[in-house]
Amino acid sequence: MSPIILHDYWRSSAAYRVRIALNLKGVEYESRQVDLREDEQKSAEYRALNPQGLVPMLEIDGNRLTQSLAIINYLDLRYPNTPLIPAVAAERAHVVAMAMVIACDIHPLNNLRVLKYLKNELGHSQDEVDLWYVHWINEGLSALEAMAEPKAGKFLFGDIPTGADVCLVPQLYNARRFNVPLDAYPTLLRADENANKLEPFAAAHPDRQQVPA
Ligand SMILES: N[C@@H](CCC(=O)N[C@@H](CS)C(=O)NCC(=O)O)C(=O)O
Description:
Helix 1 (13-25) packs parallel to helix 3 (68-78), helix 1 runs antiparallel to helix 7 (163-177) and helix 4 runs antiparallel to helix 6 (126-148). A hairpin with a 2-residue loop joins strand 3 (57-60) and strand 4. With 213 residues, this protein is α+β, with helices and mostly antiparallel strands. The chain is globular. The chain has nine helices and four strands. Strands 2-1-3-4 form a four-stranded mixed beta sheet, covered by helices on one side. The site of glutathione (GSH) has 15 residues, from helix 1, helix 3 and helix 5.
C-alpha cells in the first residue's frame, strides 16, 4: 500500500487540524513540509498537486485530498474507530457548525495571506492589521463560546473530542501567537486544555514538527 503523505507546514492551522485528526485515528503518515515562507505552495510543482496552492493536501488511498474539513470528513468515514463527528443528525449538525465557525468564518479572514494583502497591497499599517485580526477572532470566538457552552463537557461537545476541538486547538494556538486575551472564553479554554493533554493533540503541535531549515 502506498504511504500516506501529508503536504504540511508546521505552523499552518489548517494542516495542524489534519495532523490532529490523523493522530486521533491512529493513522501513520509521512509529513512533507511545504515551506510557506519560501512560497513553495505557489510553485508549479506543488500547484500541479493542489491547484489551490494551499496546505494541507493529503495523499491517501490513491486520492489527493484538499481542504482540511473535507479531509477530516474522509478520515472519519475511512477510519470509523474514533468518530470525530457524531452520528445523530442534530449532534452532527452542532459539531460541524462549531468546526465551521472556525474553519469558515474565523480562519479565512485571519489567514496570513489575507493579513499580508491588507498590509502589502492595500497599504494598511501593522496596527490596523492587528485590529482586524483581533476584531474577527473575538467575533468568532464569542459566538463559539455561546454555542458550545450548553453542551460542552471536557470538550466542546461532551467528554470526547470531536472535529470541533480539532479545529479549536490550532485556532487558539494562532490567537496566542497574536497575543489575543482569551479569558472571556472559559468553555473554549477548558476544551483546549483538555485536548492538549491528549497525545494525539500534543504530537500535532507546531513545536513538535520538523521545521524546514
Ligand atoms: N480552507 C483551507 C485553508 C487552507 C489554508 O488557508 N492554508 C494556508 C495555511 S493555514 C496556506 O496554505 N497558506 C498559503 C498561502 O496563503 O499562500 C483548509 O481548510 O484547508
